[in-house]
């Protein structure tokens, strides 16, 4: 921070640094955002699944802030989705806050008939793959932002397991803004 202030004082004056929970800080910034005179780009790199859906709704409501989101598809969400659908209440609550709804459960789990030797039983099975989680998150973003890049970038570990999904959402609803922002973001996501 000191180097930034020394080498780029004008830029540093316009930046906000905070060591607080980002949810209330971002909501406060969005509440006070003047969309007639201000535009912004927000980079969200949360610690785990700490960005609440209500925070993204506040960002989208400004209609002036584009957002890059590093979504923890594998390192967060997939780890909380147990194979048998028996998810502890605290994990469910966290997933509800991340997706802004509890409808995720029906997207990632199905009832399946299991044929035993003498009978048929019904079990809940996980059908929420990494791709299903990514698709669902993109769908959710489209419910609050005017446009979302169709080609989020999957970031994997050295073994090829998805860890994060880099998503981009456009805040400004004007056709020109959407076209320009998507063209740039989709190029970056495809070639970055």
Please characterize this protein's 3D structure.
The protein is of the alpha+beta class and 192 residues long. The chain has nine helices and seven strands. The protein has helices at 2-7, 9-13, 22-31, 53-61, 73-80, 89-99, 104-108, 130-142, 175-191, and strands at residues 40-44, 65-71, 109-115, 120-126, 147-148, 153-156, 162-170. Strands 1, 2, 5, 6 and 7 form a five-stranded mixed beta sheet that branches. Strands 3-4 form a two-stranded antiparallel sheet. Strand 3 (109-115) and strand 4 form a beta hairpin. Helix 3 runs parallel beside helix 4 (53-61). The longest helix is centred in the last third of the chain and has 17 residues, at 175-191. The radius of gyration is 19 Å and the shape is elongated.
Can you tell me the overall shape? elongated
End-to-end distance: 26 Å
Given helix and strand content, the structural type is alpha+beta
Strand content: 15-25%
Topology order in helix (H) and strand (E) letters:
HHHEHEHHHEEHEEEH
Query: What is the count of DSSP helices, taking H or I runs of 4+ residues?
Result: 9
Q: Report the strand count.
A: 7
């Amino acid at each position: 921070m000191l180097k930034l202030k020394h080498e780029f004082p004008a830029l540093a004056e316009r930046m906000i640094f905070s060591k607080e929970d980002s949810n209330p800080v971002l909501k406060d910034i969005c509440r006070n955002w003047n969309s007639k005179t201000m535009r912004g780009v927000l980079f969200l790199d949360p610690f785990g699944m700490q960005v609440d859906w209500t925070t993204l709704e506040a960002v989208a409501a400004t209609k002036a802030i584009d957002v890059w989101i590093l979504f923890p598809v594998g390192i967060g969400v997939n780890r909380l989705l147990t194979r048998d659908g028996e998810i502890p209440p605290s994990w469910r609550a966290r997933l509800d806050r991340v997706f802004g709804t509890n409808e995720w459960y029906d997207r990632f789990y199905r009832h399946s008939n299991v044929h035993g030797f003498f009978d048929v039983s019904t079990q809940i099975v996980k059908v929420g793959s990494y791709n299903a989680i990514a698709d669902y998150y993109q769908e959710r973003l489209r419910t609050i932002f005017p446009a979302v890049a169709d080609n989020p970038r999957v970031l994997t570990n050295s073994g090829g397991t998805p860890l994060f999904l880099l998503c981009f959402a456009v805040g400004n609803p004007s056709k020109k803004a959407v076209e320009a922002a998507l063209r740039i973001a989709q190029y970056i996501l495809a070639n970055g």
